[in-house]
């Protein structure tokens, strides 16, 4: 009986496992014909899981504190679910010739990584945290290398696996120091035992390096552009939204809950990282010709902004972080949806190829423009609100100079986002990309993202909802 | 209340919708003005009248609050007149007519929102809403080196908005983080050191838009490249956003800092007034002449605002109105003349008065208003400004006033030279003999604007009383 209630507490994980196993079974039994319906089947199952997850759920712990459930983590999981759902809608590449035989593996592995992120977010113990992280990163390496014929894809997979393993090693090293100095790995016990002890600070830095790798903050970002460019576009969008979002939330959670006593130290570290990440990534993004590399650098700088929210260390900062991830999901996935649609039909992935897109594909260009503007923080799109709140959270704690630097950087970022818009709307092209017919699923995903970009800012309910959880979390 | 008009617009008969829409808008502004005046006569003495307020984002006390005082009523009327005439002037815009008006509407939405709101956040939001359409309007429908100008304009103004963002968040938090509502903050004393810092940020931030002297460089290029209607709206209204913002946010919320820092900015603006006039002499392109003349006049607005006397501030608002109408008339005429001659160089034109008498006469009227002929609006506003400035008894301010005053002479030089050369001078191009005079929609636009100029020139008393009262309430 005792064990059963434990599982009830982690029921979102359980339902995800059910989805994964049924997909695996479907993959086995479905014939050639059945495989064609793989995408709708997955979508249905996963949508059911997403809806189930929305049911109210009390906070609690399971397995002696290894696993903890807090409502805020539930919100983040919902956000991740929505993102994954949109990504699955955009997975038209896996219906095409090149990748259709990998269909089963793609959905299965993606969901396994999602399960890993679930555990990472909800862990109450460093070991579970580490297992979740590994469970997420190893399949991602496989996913990145999925396009077997492409050298770039293989390179991306190898690069990701090697670097991820390396950073995990460093993280484990940090965890071992932590265990050595405190004698426990439970999140709940550590804060009382932690102080400004040199060994513990070292442990903290090593541990954080592992997470920064996941979020790809400068200077831990070297893998990002190459992997983003080489991996199939769907995997790239998964990396840039779900993986990043989960790691960012985990970072915030650990900083607030476990390393709260080291606030002086981590504020300094984050201060520097934010400035470097935003500035360098912006400068590099200006020079990119390939849209996927471009989005990679853009996502690095976006991560910098998100971290800005937690520098202040307030509950409001936590809220803005989650809200930012929520908005970023729609903006970024809209961009990736357009990129996928164009790449699958024409194979073109350079910004230069987008010239004159508006004359042939007005809807796609419009969505792309909204997404660029939202990422650049232009009102009345959601990106403006999320950026504004992030800045407000940092200003509240008196980080005037930091905010000023970040805001000036938004202008640099606006410049390169405008370059894309300019290519689509203003530049002339003799041979623009011909008019495309996107498939139903991708269209649905783009409509969904557009709705998100347009509405998530104007209606304050989303933010206020997240805020109530944010404050509840820290009490 | 005005904004809802813009909801329906996206149909095939774009033009008719635009005309009805903007006419309704103009009617609504006049109605608003009348309601405001009657409310004022009825003994209502609050700072803002006709307010309505909704809480929008609770965590930051952001409200969506609307309200008007004399200044904003005047500015709203000005904007609606210019939107209406701008629609007439761009009757034949090609290509992408629908898109052009869509962006044009969005631009005007930003402008109206800016003037009507009383909340710092929404004000900032509308400011940015007004910026982005500019990029596409200039980039797609502009002429000359349009891409360069569009990018320069957007980035410089976004740079200004970066300063503003930090500024308004700073004001909010240093005023105790209780409200974003401007009249509420005006009751709170902000500490002086904070005031100095944030005054600098917000004044420069808004000043860039108001073409404050060293930051005016976006304006000539932007105006010269923009399509006619956009030049009109931009020079006529958007640049007034700067003056209005300086007045409403910087000076009204931080009066102590304004007293201390005014001399610095007075020197800058006085230089700007004189420099703009001198630069205009050197130009050969009609649009550049007018653009530099706008720089000169807009600096005069800021100059007057900084004099911090009631008369000078009234003069500043009058100057905003007068310059808005006048410069819109100028750009409208230049646009229509350019459509006929396909050149804007005054050296290539001559003797046009005989060929297109209607446009010629209107041009002379605009020119005379610009150099301050009694009976037209320029005289009223400039007189008020200089009288107000001389109320300050110290030598420093008087010397600066004399410098600014002397710019009128320079203005006369370039206006008369320009008019003399291309309207009355010898015919340069035989083809120009076949030009046709204005058609009905152009005539209508010109008549409306000229009537506005004449009205302010002949009957300034009612208007200046209304403004004077509002300005007095704010101080």
Task: Give the strand order, joined by hyphens, for the main sheet of chain B.
Answer: 1-2
**Count the strands of chain A?**
2
Q: Count of helices of chain B?
A: 18
Strand content of chain B: under 5%
Taken together, the total number of domains of chain B comes to 1
Unreliable residue runs of chain A: none
How does the major sheet of chain A shape up?
Answer: 2 strands, antiparallel
> Reading side by side through the largest sheet of chain A, how are the strands ordered?
1-2
Average residue-wise pLDDT of chain A: 84
**Strand fraction band of chain A?**
under 5%
Give a quick account of the main beta sheet of chain B: strands, pairing sense, barrel closure: 2 strands, antiparallel
Radius of gyration of chain B (Å): 21 Å
What is the end-to-end distance of chain B? 28 Å
The interface involving the most residues is between:
A-B, 32 and 31 residues
Helix percent of chain A reads over 70%
Compressed to H and E, one letter per element, the order of chain B equals HEEHHHHHHHHHHHHHHHHH
Radius of gyration of chain A, whole Å: 21 Å
Q: What is the CA–CA distance across the termini of chain A?
A: 30 Å
Structure description:
The complex is a heterodimer of chains A (475) and B (475). With 475 residues, chain A is mainly alpha-helical. Chain A is built from 21 helices and 2 strands. A two-stranded antiparallel sheet of chain A has the order 1-2. The mean pLDDT of chain A is 84. Chain B has 475 residues and is mostly helical. Chain B is globular. In chain B, 74% of the residues lie in helices and 3% in strands. Chain B has one domain. At the A-B interface, helix 18, helix 19 and helix 21 of A face helix 4 and helix 5 of B.
Q: Which key terms come to mind for this protein?
A:
heterodimer; A: 475 residues; mainly alpha; two-stranded antiparallel ribbon; 21 helices; globular; B: 475 residues; 18 helices; 2 strands; 74% helix; 3% strand; disordered N terminus
